[in-house]
Write a structure and sequence with these properties.
- The complex is a heterodimer.
- Chain A is mainly alpha-helical.
- Chain A contains 27 helices and three strands.
- In chain A, strands 2-3 form a two-stranded antiparallel ribbon.
- In chain A, strand 2 and strand 3 form a beta hairpin.
- In chain A, helix 1 runs antiparallel to helix 2.
- Chain A is extended.
- By secondary structure, chain B is an alpha+beta fold.
- In chain B, the strands form three sheets. In chain B, strands 5, 6, 7, 8, 9 and 10 form a six-stranded antiparallel beta sheet that branches.
- In chain B, helix 2 packs across helix 3, helix 5 runs antiparallel to helix 9 and helix 8 runs antiparallel to helix 9.
- Classes of the chains: A mainly alpha, B alpha+beta.
Chain lengths: 527, 447
């Protein structure tokens, strides 16, 4: 606001006099005594305040582009505000959480559901949404999609939200059109790394062969870490179009880049590298038994085979594993006289030499890499069999990876059966790869197993991981069935003290979270 | 399922929370899960049983006309998380059909209704007028002595010059403030403390210090001549010095829209001051209701932003007619259905200037501004008239400034377009406190 304009010109004089002190400024001006100076200043102060006039407006921001999407129904908007406000809410420490649901975990679901309806965020919540996206990278894509053009408009003004501009949230004018070679070229040359990754993805989605061409223009000058990241970004949507580029990268200066290129090529069963690996692997493994390679030659090295085994592994077993892992699984059918994966896995071929474990582990890695469901199925074996007796691997982490290559319904069936046979204590990782909400059969298996654990008298926090997952993943329709479990029963004679009450509480929380999720989803339904 | 009046929003409910922990805990209880036998009455109350960890559920009742709360839980927070949870459930339409209240709820509700019906100030204790007059005289004399001492202090300050203040430090002012407390003039003590902090407040401090010292001097002089002032101005001076208001205030009945509610904590952390801004929808009169909370306790009064109370407001004499106490209420609070008309930036400053005539020490005046466009800037924000070139700066420092989060919320609401904003307009600029989305009558409290 204006100050010290016409009529108030002597304000500066008064301030100067006040700074210096009236003692040192005797006899001069309107403010000779301290009192007179204060009197004059008081008149000025009140007159200045009473006479304030507006300032000159600065440049106004460009209006935000219109977002034609609808806002969610009012109740859903209120819910979002609540979830965002509670996002940093700490859960009471320790194993006991009381009966209250954990709102933090419901935010991702709310965002996902809102995304499916094609809503935009209520404007007043966009800043909180951007803050949430800043704090939790897992929320970013969905939060930014919801925030839409209003979010990007805000992010351009606030450096705290700059990340939103590089997030690849569907663009909104941030990315050049992939059909504009000059603009693409410019961003590729000048953009930030993340922007370039997004650009590469967009170019690739438009024309698969254009991405390697773009990469090749600057490849020689990229830093090794960036080369590795660019290669890694090809993993999604990998196709035969990428092969020549990857083949060239096998000769890269960086060992990590070479290894990644080899790994990607081996995931393309029709690639030349896969063919070469198949040839090597077929020479080692057949119906007659296993003969691991005798040496790691230059060709193998170039195709990404690592020569030195880690401590404790034999050289030849190490090489064998790498060859089998990188060979297309399709090559084994013919080698084993037309047998299918299950029959091949069941063959006792390698047992005599003690190579079975090595071979099956390599097939597991190959099945995951090539996303081969029939082989995964064969290597997983029946869910009810004891894990140690499974054909492929006893490792739950690897089994979870194998499961991920199967269709959702089959995963749920398999894990449900696993839980029925072995209980919950080992099921956590497997549950993590099942689709949400859990299929009915899987949900029932989990609830039944929890009920069994309660009857066995253990404490619920031994199962807190599964409980937490259940809160997020159980179908809300299960709430009614669970209600019966929420009443605090008397402790069973051989149960841990207080266990019954704790279980009742845990089930109550599960029920209230499911109810909350159901209410949340209902609120989001367009009116 | 709509008979408990129009529902409040979740934000309005959460605004009632005494602290962040309660807000979160209440939020978790806002689902149907832990609740049993919930219900509400057509006359504005809700109740329910909340399952806790114990065997007996807690009994929670809320009188929406207050709002007032009752819960059998041992929490000392007010409202407790159960009351907040129940209100959230109600706001999400999760409370049962309107019904007869169960025994445990109806008793308390009936007691409240009976209390409300009793005429205020029922006990007419004999007043010792002579004693009261003597006490008032003694206090006036002590304040007079304090004022004289303060004048001396200010004169010394100006005689020696402000230049030394940067080095002089705060201790001297703290001592003077303590003398003013002894003189029973807490208003003067507060201003003295503020004055002492100015030299450490960055560039331009000498001008600000001269201004504040001069206004303090003005207040001293006004006190010394208070007997000759017109009654309204005299009341303002007495209030500014720190004397409690005397006499009955003017009662104004209207439908009062709650525009803002925010707390500030005194520098020593001992007192929470809650400011609630209201505006009469029919008369357009602004009102400021203050409430105070002792250490660790939030103020008891909470009025969610966006609600309209049909009530009587008792305005205290002086202070430009802003300070008011909430009197009798005539109906349950309901959400507002209209956006108050806004004024231009120039008119906002004129309103502040006009109010200074009645109270020259007034820092700011409540104004609904609009249509205006918020302009974010690295050096400072502005609110500019939608038409023309005028703008008000948004202060980023000083007691009245609020967090930047609220400003970004305002920017998000506007999207670069015009909005209506409520806030405090004063000599430092305009502090936004609430805003309306272009297509909604529900004000958004800027946090």
């Amino acid at each position: 606001m204006d100050k010290g304009d016409e009529g108030y010109g002597d304000w500066e004089e008064l301030v100067a006099a006040a700074l210096l002190g009236t003692e040192r400024r005797r006899g001069g001006g309107p403010a000779g005594s301290p009192e007179a100076l204060l009197d004059a200043a008081a008149v000025h102060a009140v007159r200045r305040r009473a006479g304030l006039r507006p300032a000159e407006a600065g440049p106004r921001p460009e209006p935000a582009p219109r977002d034609p999407r609808p806002v969610p129904p009012e109740a859903a908007g209120r819910r979002l505000a609540q979830l965002l406000a509670g996002r940093s809410g700490p859960v009471n420490g320790g194993g006991r959480r009381g009966t209250a649901p954990d709102l933090t975990e419901l935010l991702p679901q709310w965002l996902a559901a809102a995304g499916r309806y094609g809503y935009r965020a209520p404007a007043a919540l966009v800043p909180a949404l951007l803050d949430a996206a800043r704090a939790r990278t897992d929320l970013r894509p969905q939060a930014l999609a919801l925030a839409g053009t209003r979010g990007l408009w805000l992010a351009r003004m606030n450096p705290d939200w700059r990340f939103a501009l590089r997030g690849g949230s569907g663009g909104a004018g941030e990315l050049p059109a992939v059909t504009d070679p000059e603009a693409v070229e410019r961003l590729w040359q000048e953009g930030l790394f993340a922007e370039r990754v997004v650009l590469l993805g967009a170019v690739r989605a438009h024309e698969a062969a254009a991405a390697p061409r773009l990469l090749a223009t600057t490849w020689a000058t990229e830093r090794a870490e960036d080369r590795l990241m660019f290669l890694d970004s090809l993993r999604v949507g990998l196709s035969a179009q990428d092969e020549p580029f990857l083949e060239a990268a096998l000769g890269d200066r960086s060992r990590n880049v070479r290894a990644t290129a080899a790994e990607l090529l081996s995931a393309l069963p029709a690639s030349a590298l896969a063919g070469r690996m198949a040839e090597r692997a077929l020479a080692c493994v057949g119906p007659e038994g296993v003969t691991p390679p005798a040496e790691c030659d230059a060709g193998m090295l170039r195709d990404g085979v690592v020569k030195r085994p880690p401590a404790g592994r034999g050289e030849r077993a190490w090489w064998l594993g790498q060859l089998v892992e990188a060979a297309p699984l399709s090559c084994w059918r013919e080698r084993f006289g037309g047998l299918g994966p299950a029959e091949i896995v069941a063959l006792p071929v390698a047992e005599g030499d003690g190579w079975t474990e090595e071979l099956h582990a390599a097939w597991c890695r190959a099945a995951v890499r090539q996303r081969d469901a029939p082989w995964s199925r064969a290597l997983l074996g029946p869910a009810s069999a004891p894990p140690a007796a499974g054909p492929g691997t006893a490792s739950l982490a690897e089994r979870a990876k194998l499961l991920e290559t199967l269709p959702h319904a089959e995963r749920a069936e398999w894990v449900a059966e696993f839980i029925r046979a072995h209980g919950l204590s080992e099921a956590f990782q497997l549950l993590g790869v099942c689709g949400v909400p859990w299929a009915e059969t899987l949900g029932r298996a989990v609830v039944d197993a929890l009920d069994t654990a309660r009857d066995a008298g253990s404490y619920p926090w031994s199962f807190s991981g599964v409980m937490g997952l259940a809160e997020r993943c159980l179908d809300p329709a299960e709430a009614g069935r669970l209600e019966a479990l929420t009443t605090a029963a008397e402790d069973l004679p051989d149960a841990a003290p207080g266990a019954a009450a704790y279980w009742a509480e845990a089930f109550q929380r599960l029920v209230s979270t499911l109810r909350l999720r159901a209410a949340m989803l209902a609120e989001l339904t367009p009116a | 399922m709509t008979d408990q009046g129009d529902r409040w929003t979740a934000e309005q409910v959460l605004d009632l929370a005494p602290d962040d922990a309660s807000r979160k805990a209440g939020g978790r209880l806002g689902g149907a899960g832990p609740w049993l036998q919930t219900g509400g009455s057509a006359s504005g109350s809700v109740w329910g049983l909340c399952k806790g960890s114990g065997s007996k559920p807690y009994r929670t009742v809320v009188d929406l006309t207050g709002p007032a709360y009752k819960c059998s839980c041992p929490s000392r927070k007010f409202p407790c998380k159960h009351a907040l949870g129940l209100l959230l459930l109600w706001s999400a339409e999760g409370v049962g059909e309107p019904d007869e209240a169960p025994e445990w709820a109806s008793q308390w509700l009936a007691d409240r209704a009976a209390k409300a019906a009793r005429p205020p100030g029922g006990r007419a204790a004999p007043v010792d007028e002579e004693g009261a007059r003597k006490r008032a005289e003694r206090r006036a004399a002590r304040i007079g002595a304090g004022v004289t001492e303060l004048e001396q202090r200010l004169a010394d300050l100006l005689r020696g010059g402000l230049a030394g203040q940067e080095q002089a430090g705060y201790a001297g002012w703290e001592e003077t403030a303590a003398r003013m407390v002894d003189a029973q003039a807490p208003g003067l003590a507060g201003r003295v403390r503020e004055l002492g902090t100015i030299p450490s407040c960055g560039p331009g401090w000498p001008a600000r210090m001269l201004e504040e010292a001069a206004l303090l001097h003005l207040l001293d002089r006004a006190w010394l001549g208070v007997a000759g002032l017109p009654e309204e101005l005299a009341a303002t001076v007495r209030g500014r010095v720190g004397l409690p208001a005397s006499g009955e205030g003017e009662a104004v009945r209207d439908r009062w829209l709650v525009l803002a509610q925010y707390d500030t904590v005194s520098p020593d952390g001992r007192l929470t001051t809650r400011r609630i801004w209201l505006r009469g929808l029919a008369g357009g009169r602004p009102a400021l209701v203050l409430d105070f909370g002792p250490p660790g306790r939030p103020p008891g009064l909470a009025l969610p932003v966006g609600l309209v109370l049909e009530a009587e407001m008792r305005f205290r004499p002086g202070s430009a007619g802003l300070r008011a106490d909430l009197g009798e209420r005539f109906a349950a609070a309901v959400p507002c259905a209209e956006v108050p008309a806004g004024v231009s930036t120039g008119a906002a400053l004129e309103a502040y200037g006009a109010a200074l005539l009645r109270d020259p020490w007034l820092e700011s005046w409540p104004v609904v501004l609009g249509p205006v466009v918020p302009i974010p800037g690295e050096l400072g924000w502005q609110l500019a008239d939608a038409e023309g070139t005028s703008a008000l700066p948004v202060p980023l420092t000083g007691g009245a400034s609020r967090s930047r989060g609220g400003l970004w919320q305002l920017a998000a609401l506007s999207g670069g377009g015009p909005v209506t904003v409520f806030g405090e307009c004063g000599h430092r600029g305009f502090t936004p406190l609430a805003a309306w989305q272009p297509d909604s009558t529900e004000p958004v409290a800027l946090s």
